[in-house]
Amino acid sequence: MGETEDKPKRTPRRILAGFGSAGDEIRTLDAALALARALHAEVAGHFIEEAGLINMASLPFTRIVRSHGRAVKDVGASDMEREITEAGKAWRRRLAAGARRHQLSYSFAITRGDYCIELKKAASPRDIVIVNPENVFRSRRDALLSALDAAEDAAGAVLIPRRAFQNMGPVVLIASEGAPSDTALQIVEEIAKAEDRKVVIVTPGGTVKSDEEGLEIVSFNQTDVASAMDAINVLQPSYLVWQQGPSPVLNDKLLPLLDATGGPLLILKG
Amino acid sequence: MIRVSAVKPIAVEALRRKCDPKRLGFQTTDEIEPVDVLVAQERARKALAFGTAIDRPGYNLFVIGSQGFGRHKASSQFLQEKAKGEQPPDEWVYVNNFKAKRNPKALRLPHNTALPFQKAMEALIEDLEIAIPSLFESDDYKTRMQVLAEDSQHEQEEAFEALRAKTEAEGIAILKTPMGFALAPVKNGEVIKPEVFRALEKSEQERIETVIEALQKDLEETLQKMPLIEKERRDKVRELNQELASAAIGASIAEVAASFQKVEPILDYLKAAEADMIDNIGLFMKEEQQPNLMALMGRSDPEQGAAKFRRYGVNVIVADREGEGAPVIFEDHPTLGNVLGRIEHMSQMGTLFTDFMLIKPGALHKANGGYLLVDARRLLTEPFVWEAIKRTLRSGSIRIESGAEHLGLSTTVSLDPEPIPLQVKVILIGERRLYDLLVHFDPDFGDLFKVEADFDDRWERTEDNESQTVRLFSSIIRSENLLPLSAEGAALLIEEAARDAQDAERLSLRTEELCDLLSEADYWARQDERSIVSADDMNCAVKERIRRKDRVRERMYEAIERETMLIDTEGSMVGQVNGLAVLGIGGFAFGKPSRITARVRMGTGKLIDIEREVKLGGPLHSKGVMILSSYLNGNFSLDQPISLWASLVFEQSYGGVDGDSASSTELYALLSALSDVPIKQSLAVTGSVNQLGQVQAIGGVNEKIEGFFDICKARGLTGDQGVLIPTSNVKHLMLRQDVVDAAADGQFHVYPVSTINEGIELLTGRVAGERDEDGHYPAESINALVEEKLETFATRRRSFGGDGEDKKDG
Fold first, then answer.
1. What's the first-to-final CA gap in chain B, in angstroms?
2. Active site residue B390
3. Which of B491, B470, B477, B469 is nearest to B22 (CA)?
4. Predicted TM-score (pTM) of this structure
């Protein structure tokens, strides 16, 4: 897809990366930097000091079980405060180093509260929000939905996958209910160019405006979401861009796509 | 009683035995066949042949000979020739011992195998470095890896989700914190705040605590499972990797093995390497560049990739020798490391590191299966080497040792490589004194160096040997690329060889010294743009060499000429004789005339050697002086005690005096003093004397004569001047040509003297005198005057103290 005069000008964008207190956010950071680089965007780190964790540490019986399950430790609110503060500083440092390495402009903010609420407060319509559902203390499905809520006011959201496995496949754009939008196409094009990948568009119909020859388009039936998922499984996309449609039911059905790909799932508003 | 001595000057032709160039039978040395450098060293040659041929332990060799006799070159050439016809020895490499890294394995390989093996291993690693990662980048492999990862993740998630469901049913949430996991009561998806919890009924609080306590156990169990699941996944991944890799590695290893089918050590090593590669397949995988300390410091580490495959390297210790046959190695700098090999260390980020690839061979490795030549003095002055060589020869294997370890200085982890079996002949080259010291003080020496090859320093000057010597030098001329020598030049070289031997009937074998002379003559010939070294060039070389070295001599002669040092060359003096000494300075010897004086008076028969009294005289000089007493006692006043006090001194001698070559001179001075008959100062004397009055040979006769000649010549030759030498030294005469020429003109004379009587007659012009039948010396003879003086002393002494002994001299 080459650039044409008809295409919308690239709008200034910001990648808002939500860092939680839960621990390992390295994939959040990687995804934010990769996307900012591909889209030539500024990266804004936002660390949320999870209030729930401090509340929990204030309870008299709270104990921490280390991740290997062998050491159990009593903690107090001050211990938790200190750990969370240190985590915030560490992610600020890492984001700064990554941004310098890739010559990106960056900013970093720290707030206290609920992960999703704080992220939602920080997001603006020009943002693509990087959300790590691990920071949401609910069932996985609820976590995904909450994460999407966090990006409600943004241009889109990237959901960090559970696995770090890197696929080598194309950038796949799934337009769940119609033709892909210009914005979605532009984003896909830029990611594909930055990552040196092919683009595959999975759509239930509609016309794709493109000058690009050989663009692969996979059609699927809206009532048969499984066939779209099969197609995605076969493609093993390195990046899955999902343009949400108006139908909450279909959106809900497609949510498990997050599990179908090893790469980040970028959800764009329809 | 005046008498002209019967002793005649030595004939001119006996002063320097000439070599006739015509007899040599060539125009230049280019026309003659060179000979082996050992031509004049038959004894040494046989010893070398024997020592190198006998295949028994301890039959190593010690080549005995002085510096400059070409011991190194001759031994080396002999060994090179012998080694040419011998089988090239096996080659040795060190490889990694995969089971014990600190003990690298030594592989013995047939000739011309080590380097191909090294290259084959390098090629193998290069191939695998490309082949294995591509194998692991295949879709099939990725799919299988993904399945394993998903299975593992699924298992972990299932375990966790089950726990989560259980906790949620109890109104409890599992929270992930920076420190780990925790359980907390939740309400409406949010953790209950502390104040809310405190507001709960006591029973409710207790219930929550009890539930959380129970669930915490479940959480611990669940989390404990995670590492096990992960380990299981890793095991499966390893199995998968090994399964995939073994096929690729096996095929490549088989290819290498096919090239070395009959070389068992290589085949065994390849088996071990294959197993290790499969176990460590991760080495071949392309890893994402991990930021390391080097990177953080802004430095690249290009060796990092190659370094990880060092474990499969082949360290060639001995291979690809130049030339054919067995090796002949000369170790010029025999340090412990240079002889036994060493283990080097590399500095990596401030720490010292070593491995089998840093094992460096020593001279013993290189000479294994052949011959090792070492200079004994250098070897013995290097710390630890002598004991190490003995240990190695006794054990028959090379074990690399470090000097630092001996001293306990090394604190880094090092290696203990497998010793390499040793079969070598060690040839030590040293001087006799060193050999004698080793024989006497090192009990092991005799067991380990059973053969001595003794290099002679001279050989007989026959016509045949003269020709052989010229041929020997012609081979040196060719090997050193010198200009050919003319027959006249060669004749002069022969004469110089005789002069170097200090014997007209012998030729010196100090080849290095003579070779230097040839090189210098070559230089002068080239300066004059000649293509042949002539007699003039040889003469020029000799002259220039002396000129370079004779500054001290010149100053000394200058002192004599300016009469700072008193030496008379004309007139006569009582009790004063010109003696001759030889000084050697920096390899240059010259004669130095010295005035020797004697004073006598009545005494108790004591002969004072002033040199000894002031400790300037050595034991040999003292011996010579004591012989004089014996001579006097045996020849004069036989029926009464000698009542003489006499003193002898080397005038203006401020250094030490040793040797007995001046004893005859001192006796002449004494006899002159006792007889009151003056001695001609135009003559100088050398020669030792025994108590019977026979004059005996001394050393340095040529230099002594030349020394006095130079002084006389500087003052003007009178025709009366000359030197008395022992008759037994006549055969040693190889005088400078200018001395010979002066003698031929009757300007200078060399007299052979056999007895003191002959000498004193020459020096005084008076009859010495022999006892007649009545036991009396002829009146007015020297001996009669001496005896008369001694009797006078005895009579006067008796008049002083009867028969009693004087308590005090003088």
1. 32
2. no
3. B491
4. 0.66
